[in-house]
Write a structure and sequence with these properties.
single chain, 4-stranded antiparallel beta sheet, mainly beta
């Protein structure tokens, strides 16, 4: 079965940087898009950044100019480089894979990782 595993979270001071990684495993044929979402305590999960297999990116206004999403299609891996981190960026970050074609189902499906904690101290 398809599984997403995130890594790279941790504690960092304001102004610092972190890079998150997410690797998809399983009998995968293709993934239309991968992305990152985050959820802070008491708040709804929100989109941070997405990238399609063709390289088209989309960012939340709050992270534009600071975060960069990339993707290694051959490895079904996505990265989120986070610079100039702010305390407001503190959240659990979840990896998402949309439109996944695999050997398990005829139709594409979406998958989520377990999440990785990012804490930015002031």
């Amino acid at each position: 079965q398809v599984q997403l595993v995130e890594s790279g979270g941790g504690l960092v001071q304001a102004g610092g940087s972190l890079t998150l990684s997410c690797a998809a495993s399983g009998t995968i044929f293709s993934i239309n898009a991968m992305g990152w979402y985050r959820q802070a305590p008491g708040k709804q999960r929100e989109l941070v950044a997405t990238i399609t297999s063709g390289g088209s990116t989309n960012y939340a206004d709050s992270v534009k100019g600071r975060f960069t999403i990339s993707r290694h299609n051959a490895k079904y891996t996505t990265y989120l480089q986070m610079n100039s981190l702010k305390p407001q960026d503190t959240a659990v970050y979840y990896c998402n894979a949309e439109g996944v074609y695999s050997g398990d189902y005829y139709a594409p499906r979406d998958y989520w990782g377990q999440g990785t904690q990012v804490t930015v101290s002031s």
